[in-house]
């Protein structure tokens, strides 16, 4: 019975983590470039139960032979095995602002993705799909939280004009004169990226992603005056939250039933009337 307590508790903890993940997705449904997190549940490793016993042989000198009788496997609960963003394409929303940029995926291998490259506060590169950019007082192209957008040579992009034009390949034009090209990074396995907050990602172990322009096997388009919306499906997320709540509630009732059984065993079994 005590094992049942642990199993039901593990289920509640897993569903609580899943509910937190879904709630975070839903709260970012209107965040530009946000990629919804998805989780996978996995059962703890099974245990094979066996019964240790001994058989006595009726002889003048009693003999006992050890026996190992298999009972069968038992599962010890469930846990959230992995949490990873889903890098599917979000819808494009026109804004009319020249500084709003969006990446439109065209041809990409499975699990691959491409990103804008920005400079973090510590000078290291970060990667984002949120193209809600702006020009600061010095004419630098920055993110909405003040990080510098980088070009293909990892330099900050400074626009010495009030407006600019961006070509589909990321080349930035001022008065029809090419100035620089956006730094577009390519990840052949985006699931290995680490979420760094505020819609930013980083490569593991201080590595940097490769330049997408040099990869001939992919195709994409940079859209000016557009924002990529979050890929969160609000209706599906609400449905998943309801399912997680009901699973949590079911495990809670199992614990209550076990608790009542334990109380009955402690108070009534063996009572002398």
UniProtKB/TrEMBL annotation:
Originating species: Sutcliffiella tianshenii
PANTHER family recorded: FLAGELLAR BASAL-BODY ROD PROTEIN FLGG, FLAGELLAR PROTEIN
Chief location of this protein within or outside the cell: other
Family (UniProt): Belongs to the flagella basal body rod proteins family.
Residues annotated as domain Flagellar basal body rod protein N-terminal: 7-35
InterPro entries (UniProt xref): Flag_bb_rod_N (IPR001444), Flagellar_basal_body_rod_CS (IPR019776), Flagellar_FlgE/F/G (IPR020013), Flg_bb/hook_C_dom (IPR010930), FlgE/F/G-like (IPR037925), LlgE_F_G-like_D1 (IPR053967)
Sequence intervals crossing the membrane: none
Domain of life, per lineage: Bacteria
Annotated Flagellar hook protein FlgE/F/G-like D1 domain residues: 115-172
Protein name: Flagellar basal-body rod protein FlgG
Cellular compartment(s): Bacterial flagellum basal body
Keyword set includes Secreted: no
Domain Flagellar basal-body/hook protein C-terminal: 223-267
Keywords assigned: Bacterial flagellum, Cell projection, Cilium, Flagellum
């Amino acid at each position: 019975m005590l094992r049942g307590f642990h199993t039901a508790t593990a289920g509640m903890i897993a569903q609580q983590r899943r509910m937190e993940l879904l709630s975070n997705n839903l709260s970012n449904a209107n965040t530009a470039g946000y990629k919804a997190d998805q989780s996978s549940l996995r059962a703890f490793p099974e245990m094979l139960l066996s019964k240790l016993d001994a058989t006595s042989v009726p002889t003048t000198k009693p003999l006992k032979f050890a026996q190992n009788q298999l009972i069968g496997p038992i599962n010890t609960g469930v846990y959230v095995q992995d949490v990873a963003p889903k890098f599917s394409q979000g819808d494009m929303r026109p804004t009319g602002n020249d500084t709003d940029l969006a990446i439109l995926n065209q041809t990409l291998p499975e699990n691959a993705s491409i990103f804008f490259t920005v400079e973090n506060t510590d000078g290291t590169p970060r990667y984002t799909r949120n193209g809600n950019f702006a020009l600061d007082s010095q004419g630098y192209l920055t993110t909405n939280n003040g990080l510098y957008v980088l070009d293909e040579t990892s330099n900050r992009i400074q626009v010495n004009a009030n407006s600019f034009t961006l070509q589909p390949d990321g080349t930035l034009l001022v008065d029809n004169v090419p100035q620089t090209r956006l730094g577009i990074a390519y990840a052949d396995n985006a699931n290995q990226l680490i979420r760094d907050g505020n819609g930013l990602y980083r490569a593991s172990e201080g590595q940097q992603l490769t330049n997408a322009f040099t990869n001939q096997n992919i195709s994409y388009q940079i859209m000016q005056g557009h924002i990529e919306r979050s890929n969160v499906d609000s209706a599906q997320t609400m449905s998943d939250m309801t399912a997680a709540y009901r699973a949590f509630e079911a495990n809670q009732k199992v614990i209550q039933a076990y608790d009542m059984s334990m109380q009955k065993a402690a108070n009534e079994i063996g009572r002398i009337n």
